[in-house]
Design a protein that fits this description.
Layout lengths: L5 H23 L7 H17 L7 H6 L4 H12 L13 H15 L2
Protein name: Si:dkey-27i16.2
InterPro entries: RGCC (IPR029252)
GO biological process, one term: regulation of cell cycle
């Protein structure tokens, strides 16, 4: 798979910005605007982003977009391998921090 050329990306971005500008202009002039026509269009991306938008590239959603990528599978294996072994700290649980500080104090005292 090759990356799209910068010219193609510029063209696509220009098209998207023009479409956005056109919609904004249409919404600014209420006598010509029909905002209800955009409601379903706006709901659809929200639905799909609510399912997939974790903000992390190696999420299940990105793997669905590129199912043949071995990199995504490897990252998933790395991410899930340690998740079950490490308990999540609860808010206010400072036990690990206190233990670390005690060990650090001992090390510094021994120097």
């Amino acid at each position: 798979l090759s990356a799209p050329s910068p010219a193609a990306l510029d063209s696509e971005l220009g098209d998207l910005l023009q479409e956005f500008h056109d919609v904004m202009e249409e919404l600014r002039t209420p006598e010509h605007s029909r905002p209800e026509q955009y409601q379903e269009y706006l709901r659809q991306p929200k639905r799909s982003s609510a399912v997939c938008d974790s903000g992390i590239e190696d999420s299940d959603c990105s793997r669905e977009l590129t199912p043949n990528s071995s990199l995504n599978t490897s990252e998933e294996d790395l991410n899930t391998a340690g998740t079950s072994a490490v308990p999540k700290a609860k808010l206010g649980d400072l036990t690990e921090l206190e233990n670390f500080i005690e060990n650090l104090d001992r090390e510094l005292a021994g120097m």
